[in-house]
Structures are given as structure tokens and as C-alpha cells.
């Protein structure tokens, strides 16, 4: 048996190329089919906004495709692994490799390294593309597919409770004391009865209160409206009540989410669910590293024995069981039932041990 971890350079490049080509080919097919189905279900909502047309459909596709790629990349890697190993087995190439002295781990080594490359690519893609497209698409959907906000970091449609009163901001721009609110509405309630509505074009946080400009007041009892100009109100309502009111982990990169968690902790807010999502931004892409190990059962055993299909099904079952366990653990972490690190990393480590055990017990 050879002592090096990798097979020859030729075999390494051959198997890694097969794996990558098949994985990305499966991904392209899935993206094409799922994007078409998703667009069919969403097109009526897009066209419902006056003036929207074909250009808005393509805008939606451009924002939605990165999300689909991020979600189904790990499925594609699993299917690419099964197709690659089943093909190698069917052509007796696995038998030739083992006859030359290669172990099962050496045969899988090129796929694992290629999986590591896919994981790094996935993390970078999620950070640079998916987070931004998700934030922009979420803001666009909140605007009922109206004009897309120029800044995808702008938060929209925010509600804050101040005693009995409700404060709504159409948009919140900036962070900390520099936060600026646009489209502010204050619903003044007394004893759960609405007494007046104050609306302002803009609000800025100055000396512990909000200075509203372009303000009007509507009196519910009399049905009259009055121009107030510039007023100061909502003292004690800090800017983080708006900027941190709706933290979407999917719409933030790893470093942006970590900063948001720090701001929430400083404001005394719970962060356990967001911490689970933060760590999952690392463990999620690494699932591509795990797929060759879980699908390895499809590459070994005699193809002519008639059990190749059964082995492929077992490999697929292991992979999909991992996806179910991963989503379940993340859901438990979001609910606070699991600690953040356990919710993010336990499924990965568990199925790493399961895949390694199956490989060792059956092939080594």
C-alpha cells in the first residue's frame, strides 16, 4: 500500500475534475429548473405593481438566483459525488485503483480536497453576493416590488413600541447617533384608543430624542389636520430600537452579523439565535467537504453484483439525513433550545464520524 495520502498527480486531477464538472453541471440544472418554477409563482406579484415589466422579472431572477445557488450547492455536491463514484465503479476504475495499492481514503482524497475548494468558494460567494442580494430582495419585497432602495443596507418598514404609542419608520439609514429615519408615523394611543397620528418626512436623533421635520398631526376625534413643522418627541427611544429591530442573518455577511450581535449585546438584547446563524455561516459551506465521505459508499463494492444502485441510494440517504439534521439543529438553535455552537457544528461532526465509520467498517 502506498504511504502518501494522495494517489498519483494524474489520478488526482482526473477524479477531482470529474467531481467538480458533475457537481456544477447538476447545480446548473437545479438552478435552471428551480428558478423557472420560482419565477412562475412570483411573477404575478411582480406585475401587480404598476409599471413593472420584463425588466423587473430579470431583476428578480438576478436577485433570486444567488439564493438558490447557495441553498442547493450542497445538494449538487452530494449528487456530483454519487455520480462520480458510481461512474468510476461502473467502469471498474475503482477496482484498478485498489489493485494498485490505493486505499479507500486515498481514492477519496482528491474529492475531499475539491470539496474544500467548493466550501471556500461557497463561503466567499455567500459573503460577497448572497448576503447583498438577500438584503436587496427582502427590501424590494417589503416595498411590494416597487422601486428598489438604492442602498441594500437600508432597513425598511420598522415598528417600535414606546409605552402605549407605536412608531413606524418607512426606512432607517445609518447606525448609532447618526441614524436617520424617513417616513415616520407616530400613533398616539391613550387607553388602547387611537387619539392622533403624527407623520413626518424625516427624523434625526438629537440629545436623546427625535427631532422630526415636515410634521403634520391628524386628530382622530375631530378629523382635522394641522401642520406642526419641526417638533421633538419620542425621548428615550434609542436609535438601536430601529436599526436592530429586524436583524436578518441571511441578509448580512459573517462580519456584519458579528457586528450586529455585538451591538445587540451592548443594548442588552438576546443574541443566541443569531449566534447560531453566525456559526452556521462557517459550518454550512463546509458541508461540501463532508459530501464525498457520506457518498463514498456508492463508489465501492462490485458493480456487477447488482448492488451499485442500492449503494447509491444509501449514500443519498446519508447525505439527505445530514441536511435534515442540520436544519433541525439550526431551528433548535434559533429557538434557544440548543447552544449556538452545538446547533451549528454538532450535525457536521456527527456525520463526519458516521461517514468515517461506514467507510472504515466496509472498505478499510
UniProtKB/TrEMBL annotation:
Main location: membrane
Record's GO cellular component terms: ATP-binding cassette (ABC) transporter complex
Example of a GO biological process term: lipopolysaccharide transport
Membrane keyword on record: yes
Bilayer topology annotation: Multi-pass membrane protein
Alphabetical UniProt keywords: Cell membrane, Membrane, Transmembrane, Transmembrane helix
Annotated transmembrane regions: 20-40, 68-86, 107-125, 282-301, 308-325, 337-360
Compartment list: Cell membrane
Record-linked InterPro entries: LptG, LptG/LptF_permease
UniProt key word Iron: no
Entry-linked PANTHER family: LIPOPOLYSACCHARIDE EXPORT SYSTEM PERMEASE PROTEIN LPTG, SLR0882 PROTEIN-RELATED
Protein name stated in the entry: LPS export ABC transporter permease LptG
Amino acid at each position: 500500500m502506498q504511504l502518501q495520502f494522495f494517489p498519483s498527480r494524474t489520478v488526482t486531477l482526473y477524479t477531482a475534475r470529474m467531481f467538480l464538472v458533475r457537481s456544477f453541471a447538476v447545480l446548473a440544472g437545479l438552478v435552471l429548473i428551480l428558478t423557472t418554477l420560482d419565477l412562475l409563482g412570483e411573477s404575478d406579484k411582480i406585475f401587480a405593481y404598476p409599471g413593472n415589466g420584463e425588466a423587473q422579472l430579470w431583476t428578480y431572477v438576478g436577485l433570486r438566483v444567488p439564493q438558490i445557488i447557495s441553498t442547493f450547492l450542497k445538494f449538487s455536491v452530494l449528487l456530483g459525488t454519487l455520480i462520480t463514484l458510481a461512474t468510476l465503479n461502473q467502469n471498474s476504475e475503482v477496482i484498478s485503483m485498489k489493485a494498485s495499492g490505493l486505499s479507500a481514503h486515498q481514492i477519496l482524497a482528491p474529492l475531499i480536497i475539491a470539496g474544500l475548494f467548493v466550501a471556500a468558494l461557497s463561503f466567499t460567494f455567500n459573503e460577497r453576493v448572497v448576503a447583498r442580494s438577500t438584503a436587496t430582495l427582502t427590501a424590494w419585497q417589503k416595498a411590494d416590488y416597487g422601486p428598489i432602495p438604492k442602498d441594500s443596507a437600508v432597513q425598511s418598514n420598522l415598528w417600535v413600541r414606546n409605552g402605549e404609542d407605536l412608531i413606524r419608520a418607512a426606512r432607517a439609514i445609518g447606525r448609532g447617533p447618526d441614524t436617520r429615519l424617513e417616513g415616520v408615523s407616530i400613533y398616539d394611543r391613550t387607553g388602547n384608543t387611537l387619539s392622533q397620528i403624527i407623520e413626518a418626512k424625516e427624523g434625526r436623533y438629537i440629545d436623546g430624542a427625535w427631532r422630526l421635520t415636515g410634521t403634520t398631526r391628524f386628530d382622530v376625534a375631530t378629523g382635522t389636520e394641522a401642520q406642526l413643522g419641526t417638533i421633538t418627541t419620542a425621548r428615550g427611544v434609542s436609535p438601536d430600537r430601529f436599526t436592530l429591530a429586524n436583524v436578518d442573518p441571511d441578509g448580512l455577511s459573517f462580519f456584519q452579523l458579528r457586528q450586529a450581535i455585538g451591538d445587540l449585546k451592548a443594548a442588552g438584547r438576546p443574541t443566541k439565535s443569531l449566534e447560531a446563524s453566525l456559526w452556521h455561516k462557517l459550518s454550512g459551506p463546509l458541508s461540501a467537504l463532508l459530501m464525498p465521505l457520506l457518498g463514498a459508499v456508492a463508489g465501492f463494492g462490485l458493480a456487477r453484483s447488482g448492488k451499485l444502485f442500492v449503494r447509491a441510494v444509501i449514500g443519498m440517504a446519508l447525505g439527505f439525513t445530514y441536511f435534515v439534521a442540520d436544519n433541525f439543529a439550526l431551528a433548535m438553535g434559533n429557538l434557544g433550545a440548543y447552544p449556538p455552537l452545538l446547533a451549528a457544528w454538532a450535525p457536521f461532526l456527527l456525520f463526519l464520524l458516521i461517514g468515517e465509520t461506514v467507510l472504515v467498517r466496509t472498505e478499510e
